Amino acid sequence: MNEATSKAIAAERSAAHLTIKELAKKANLNERTLIRLLQNERNINVIQLAQLAEVFGVYPHELIEAAERFIERAERGPVSLSVEPDSDDATARDYYAMAAKHGDIEAEQEAYEEMP
């Protein structure tokens, strides 16, 4: 969890276009401490999490939720981005829904015709 939280903080830092030095100053953290947190060499405590969250304009639990998403993604493994209709009803319906959502009329029609 600590590693994932470090990734979430790093992502927020990047999105905020802050250097480590700038973030440390705004969060009232020692620069070396922040570096160790970001490199997962030190456990983050609740106060530090709150200080960082305030700089990013988010609630502390949002950083934890972002960390949980990193963990879920890592556990899930690779994801296939190709969606092709097949004889499975659910797959054809999923493809139909995706095509409809993106306004692809031809793909929507093809997927509909594939459905049993």
Automatic annotation (TrEMBL):
Domain HTH cro/C1-type: 9-63
Regions that span the bilayer: none
Annotated GO MF terms: DNA binding
InterPro entries named among the record's database cross-references: Cro/C1-type_HTH, Lambda_DNA-bd_dom_sf
Xref: SUPFAM superfamilies: lambda repressor-like DNA-binding domains
Protein name (Swiss-Prot/TrEMBL): Helix-turn-helix domain-containing protein
Taxonomic source organism: Bifidobacterium catenulatum subsp. kashiwanohense
